[in-house]
Amino acid sequence: MLKCCCEKQLRTVRDLNPLVEGQGQETEQELLVVVAETPDRLRVLVHNDDVTPYDFVVLVLQSVFLLAAAEARRVTGEAHTSGVALVAVLPEQDAKYRVGQAHALARTAGVPLTFSLQPE
């Protein structure tokens, strides 16, 4: 298996389709196709605390994670009663970016609202 500079896996057409004529014969030029790697997905969790106002959590879930109002209230309620709730499952970069945005809003507001990430 070949790797390019951007670390995506490359495979020959033969590797992807065993019905290609000439299976097993070496050629000097083989057509390469990029097989996109599936991005890692992370679970975003919101944690309850005794300081952050309920309405602030709902607002952050709506503005940062783009949850509908009813879903944001449901997730906030679950975190309030259970201590933690699943917000979303997102690609790794998106999850990290949104959690960073949420933490920045919380710090600006002076509240200890916390989100964490777990592998899916």
* Largest sheet: spatial strand order: 1-2-3
How many angstroms separate the termini?
27 Å
The total count of helices amounts to 4
SSE run: EEHEEHHEHE
- CATH homologous group name of the largest domain: Ribosomal protein L7/L12, C-terminal domain/Adaptor protein ClpS
Please identify, by name, the CATH architecture of the largest domain: 2-Layer Sandwich
What is the β-strand count?
6
CATH topology of the largest domain: Ribosomal Protein L30, Chain: A
Q: List the domain count as a whole number.
A: 2
What is the global morphology? globular
Structural class category: alpha+beta
Indicate the CATH class of the largest domain. Alpha Beta
Gist?
The protein is an alpha+beta fold. It has helices at residues 13-16, 54-63, 69-82, 92-109; strands spanning 2-3, 9-12, 32-35, 41-47, 84-91, 114-119.
What keywords describe this structure?
Ribosomal Protein L30, Chain: A; alpha+beta; disordered N terminus; three-stranded antiparallel β-sheet; globular; 2 domains; 120 residues
Secondary-structure topology with pairs:
Blueprint: E1 2-3, E2 9-12, H1 13-16, E3 32-35, E4 41-47, H2 54-63, H3 69-82, E5 84-91, H4 92-109, E6 114-119
Antiparallel strand pairs: 1-2, 2-3, 4-5, 4-6
Helix pairs in contact: 2-3
